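Lab notebook: predicted structure, single chain.

Context: the supervisor wants predicted structures on file for every construct in the current expression panel, including those that have not yet been purified. This is the next one on the list. No modifications to the sequence; it matches the entry in the shared construct table.
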Amino acid sequence: MRKVQLILSVLTAFSGSVFGQNAANTNVSRYHNPVFEPILADPSVIKADDGWFYAYGTQDNWGDGKPGHLVAVVRSKNLTNWTFVQDAFLTRPTWKEKGGIWAPEVVKVNGEYHLYYAYSTWGDPNPGIGLAISDAPAGPFTDHGKLLLSSEVNVPNSIDPFFIEDQGKKYLFWGSFSDAPTQGTYGVEMAVDGKSIPDLKKKIKIAAGDFEAVMIHKRDGYYYFFGSRENCCDGAASKYNVRVGRSKTLFGPYIDKDGKDLRERGTGTVLVKRTETIAGPGHNSRLITDSKGQDWMLYHAIDVKNPLVSSGANRRFLMLDRVSWKNGWPEILNAEPSMDEREAPFFK
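Prediction complete. Output recorded below exactly as produced.
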């Protein structure tokens, strides 16, 4: 009898440590990329007051027979299952004659949802950045007009806005690819309401003109610059990739792991790059921290075997990957977009 009890107790302990662990694993949510398709390029992501995550993408034609989306808005409870809600704009802004609404940057400022956006065409000699505002995260957003033009601020290719509030002050960062003498990514202080820039001449350069899509993340006493390099939109040949540098101050200097200043061209530590099957991973969102304290990054990428939609637009779908930290630097596993099944973010 004692032998039977001993055997039963051993089996119970074994099942609790092994079978129980497997059972627990079956309750772990899983996901695989892409998390939204066909297109959500240059994503900006925010968790709104209603508990939903909202993501916003560059104006694009999805090849579905409908007019191009004027900044598509999608939402999710968990970052992995996204549903289209509506377009952020009902009509195009009128302060510029031609252009698309690119690289939306949505943040909550003084109780309102601000959507900073680039207004540009391909090869535009004078693109600019504008602001639209809404009381609701899905919009519709009302345009408040121009913040700056490239010609006014003397920064070529002034697109890809990023907003940050730091130590009680508000700042706008922007910039994109250029070889001109004044090329680069710049930042400048905004007015307290986040609706204007008092003095464009006070801009400060933080990265060279082979970067675009700036995002700055503050962690453990460092400011981390995330920026994209190479070509974003050449279908299967796209070589877009995300690179990182860090600084002790918001305006730099930002230095990569090799000790190189990001204000010099050809720098930055690679965070995620293309593979044989996935091209052009880049233009990332802010990092989102889940309930386990794990960081996640959304970005767009292109399927090499299916790179375009029927309209001819690049099929830049929405991707999600976990960002881990090692010796004070962010990492994505193998620096590659994941396409296998992974453990999903956890939110209570």
